[in-house]
Amino acid sequence: MKPIYVLNGPNLNRLGKREPHIYGTTTLAEVEDLCRSAAGDHSIVFHQTNSEEQLINWVHEAIDDGAGIIINPAAFTFTSLALLDSLKMFEGPVIEFHISNIHKREPIYHRSYVSMRADVVMAGLGAKGYATAVRALLDLVEQRQA
């Protein structure tokens, strides 16, 4: 079976140190471990970048090689039509994931371009919610293959 892609956008490499009152103290390395554990034997491709171009390139890679995408686009959620366009080319399930509840934050965080393509939007579960997202994505992939 094709791998699932867990893609993370800008500043998520600073998890554990960046605004812990919003994002908690879990590091990105710990998030990756949570994802791999939740996936069991299923293969995961896990990436983080501060570059919009690189994030789009990984979506393109998933178009060819992936079964599903979990994406935490961070700030690109609210700014990137190019990211939306790349996700629209992906035929598998997409989960948009946010550590914080973006709807409880400032109004600038309330309009997501990525939500226009996402099959599921998860927000506010904290970093440990990535494991829930992985399990949900595996269920969606299984449903589509049935």
TrEMBL record:
Site note Transition state stabilizer applies to R18
Instruction: Please list the residues that make up the active site.
Output: Y23 (proton acceptor), H98 (proton donor)
Recorded metabolic or biological pathway in which this protein acts: Metabolic intermediate biosynthesis; chorismate biosynthesis; chorismate from D-erythrose 4-phosphate and phosphoenolpyruvate: step 3/7
| EC number(s) given by UniProt | 4.2.1.10
List the PANTHER family hit by this protein, alphabetically: CATABOLIC 3-DEHYDROQUINASE
Instruction: Sum up the protein's function in the record's words.
Output: Catalyzes a trans-dehydration via an enolate intermediate.
Q: Please give one Gene Ontology molecular function term for this protein.
A: 3-dehydroquinate dehydratase activity
Question: Does this UniProt record's set of keywords contain Magnesium?
Answer: no
Give UniProt keywords alphabetically: Amino-acid biosynthesis, Aromatic amino acid biosynthesis, Lyase
User: What reactions does this protein catalyze?
Assistant: 3-dehydroquinate = 3-dehydroshikimate + H2O
State the protein's name.
Answer: 3-dehydroquinate dehydratase
Q: Does the keyword Membrane apply?
A: no
Family the UniProt entry places it in: Belongs to the type-II 3-dehydroquinase family.
Q: Which residues bind substrate?
A: N72, D85, I99, S100
Gene Ontology biological process: amino acid biosynthetic process; aromatic amino acid family biosynthetic process; chorismate biosynthetic process; quinate catabolic process
Q: What's the source species for this entry?
A: Devosia aurantiaca
Q: Under which main EC class is this enzyme filed?
A: lyase
Q: Which gene encodes it?
A: aroQ
